[in-house]
Design brief:
Blueprint: E1 15-18, H1 22-33, E2 38-42, E3 57-60, H2 65-78, E4 85-88, H3 91-99, H4 101-104, E5 109-110, H5 115-122, H6 124-134, E6 141-142, E7 159-163, H7 171-175, E8 178-180, H8 183-196, E9 202-206, E10 215-223, E11 226-239, E12 246-253, H9 256-269, E13 273-281, E14 288-294, H10 302-306, H11 311-319, E15 334-336, H12 338-350, H13 356-362, E16 367-369, H14 378-397
Parallel strand pairs: 1-2, 1-4, 2-3, 4-5, 15-16
Antiparallel strand pairs: 6-9, 7-8, 7-9, 10-11, 10-13, 11-12, 12-15, 13-14
């Protein structure tokens, strides 16, 4: 049964969405179009989700984790949100909710799995260990105890250095990873990274060769490791190009091997809720190498509704105790985030991997934009102003862009 015509009454539970970026905006629109009441809690520097016509109200939460839990509980009591569905859109929010799941569940329908489950996706060290137990392909990876261990990475250069999870915002976590091409630079970058995050969470990983055709994802809604709905996509362009912080152009595809590998991992995790599993296909072997698991709504998620799998609404149905209808994704549907895709495409053109004609051809329909939609235009109109304000504020505060 298709979910396209399903609507809910105003008496049904609403949804509290944490985060206000384009990722949260996609969740807000998905639910709002179905008649679900939606509120936004700003947990980041972004504001466009709260500009949506489908967001009834917005709040900003406090900086301390303990205070955040109290804030959410107090908000539910003050604004009569008991029984509403709580949906995070950032890893840090999902982790916080998972750690305090029992307490928050006294007020909300929590869509985040327990901490023991979530941390196997949140902490890349645990993800790496589990994938190793399952025999899934992964890039060569090491977890150095000190700079002296880094010599083992020399035959694997170029590599990236990155944290196992995002403890806080800084130059490293904002960049997501640092590329390194020689051992001397790796040693320097390791020391520098160790000043920004706890050195015990640093990992060094082989940079797998390949362009956008090799970047693959499996998005799913799960219940105790069983996949209830899924979609497979090729993340053709990302920004920055080598190991982007986020995708900028994505297309739905059919790839049984990606689905097979992701399902094995999610079954072993016994994951419940929304999740995206990222792979890179090694051109040398054809293996799908596991990169990341994102245990919350992901960046290109608004593509999925256009392709027939409306994940936020399916998540709301799951949290509300409703049956999940059988849905099937459509291949060949595209998604673009113009704010970064123009720069990503320009870099690909300079690198000789893309022509201007092919770039324009890639933007043919069916195409979903990350921010602009006809039925909710204000976030797109407001976006450039908000973006300029965000950059200016971070520069003035000396924070990373």
């Amino acid at each position: 049964m298709s979910t396209a015509a399903l609507k809910v009454s105003r008496s049904e539970p609403g949804a509290l969405v944490t985060g206000a970026s384009y990722r949260a905006l996609a969740v807000v629109r998905s639910l709002g179009r179905r008649g679900v009441r939606v509120r936004v809690v700003r947990t980041d520097d972004h504001t466009i989700a709260q500009r949506s016509r489908y967001a009834a109200a917005a709040s900003t939460w406090p900086p301390d984790e303990h205070d955040r839990v109290g804030f959410l509980l107090e908000l539910a009591g003050r604004e009569h949100l008991d029984g509403w569905v709580l949906i995070p859109t950032h890893d840090e929010e999902a982790a916080m909710i998972a750690r305090h799941r029992d307490e928050l569940a006294t007020r909300y329908r929590v869509t985040t799995p327990p901490w023991e489950t979530l941390r196997r996706a949140y902490d890349k060290r645990r993800t790496h260990a589990l994938a190793g137990e399952l025999g899934l392909g992964q890039p060569w990876t090491m977890f150095p105890a000190s700079a002296a261990d880094l010599v083992a990475a020399e035959p694997r250069l170029p590599v990236v250095i990155k944290p196992a999870f995002k403890a806080e915002a800084n130059r490293l976590t904002t960049a997501k990873a640092w590329r390194v091409d020689d051992l001397a630079t790796l040693e320097q970058r390791y020391v520098e990274a160790g000043r920004l995050v706890d050195p015990t969470i640093l990992m060094v990983q082989e940079l797998v060769p390949g362009d956008g055709d090799a970047q693959l994802s499996f998005g799913a809604l799960c219940a105790d490791g069983t996949v209830l709905a899924d979609i497979t996509a090729q993340r053709t362009r990302q920004y920055p190009m080598d190991f982007g912080r986020a995708s900028s152009f994505v297309e739905t595809i059919v790839d049984p091997s990606v689905a097979r590998d992701a399902r094995r991992l999610l079954r072993a995790m016994r994951f419940t809720g929304l999740v995206e599993v990222e792979f890179k296909r090694d051109a040398r072997t054809g293996a799908n190498l596991l990169l990341d698991v994102n245990p919350r709504a992901w960046g290109w998620q608004s593509l999925c509704g256009r392709a027939g799998v409306d994940f936020p609404f399916l998540l709301w149905l799951q949290a509300s105790g409703r049956p999940i209808p059988a849905v099937a994704p459509t291949a060949g549907v595209r998604w673009v985030r113009m704010a970064t895709d123009v720069a990503a495409a320009a870099g690909e053109i300079r690198a000789g991997r893309l022509t201007a004609r092919d770039y324009l051809a890639s933007l043919r329909g069916p195409l979903e934009f990350s921010v602009f939609v006809a039925d909710d235009p204000l976030p797109a109109l407001y976006g450039p102003v908000a973006g300029a304000h965000l950059v200016a504020r971070r520069l003035l505060e000396g924070r990373p862009l």
